[in-house]
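Next comes the chain:
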Amino acid sequence: MISTSDFRTGRKLKLDGDLWEILDFQNARTAQRRAKVTTKLRNLRTGQVLEKVFASGETFDEPEFEQRSMKYMYNDGEQWHFMDNETFEQVGLNAEQLEGYTDFLMENEDYKILYFEGAPLSLDLPSSVVLEVTDAEPAVKGDTVSNMTKGATVQTGLQVKVPLFIKIGDKIKIDTRTKDYLERVNV
């Protein structure tokens, strides 16, 4: 069972017979009233997004997922194709199933695909990934008064704001939930 106190971004739960992923949540407490949790949920089957308010302490069923390690092969314009590393079975996931995750997919890399009742549902990304910077705006000398940032593009095409010292070829860690720069990685 999952309680509202267990909520976090990316958590999956069973609600009204459907599977949902928490995109965002916020605890709110008003004077003389019971605390409430406002959530933004995405349906894992249809991609529908809705906002729902729950009473604090409410419980939900935790869905039983199967995770399979699969290699990302290619995108044909409509679906992103993955191949099972053990059985070589290929599956395709559409844009609704991968909403927000496509900016982190690299060909020939392994990812965990979530299956529910034998059908592929979504991708289970780690909280952060390391990507290489392929393009970065030049830093202007003297722009170091405070936390100045510049635009950079990583190998998947995702554009992020990075500190001025980041240059082309650097590897950086990016938060997969917020798409924000976290740190430079020395490899």
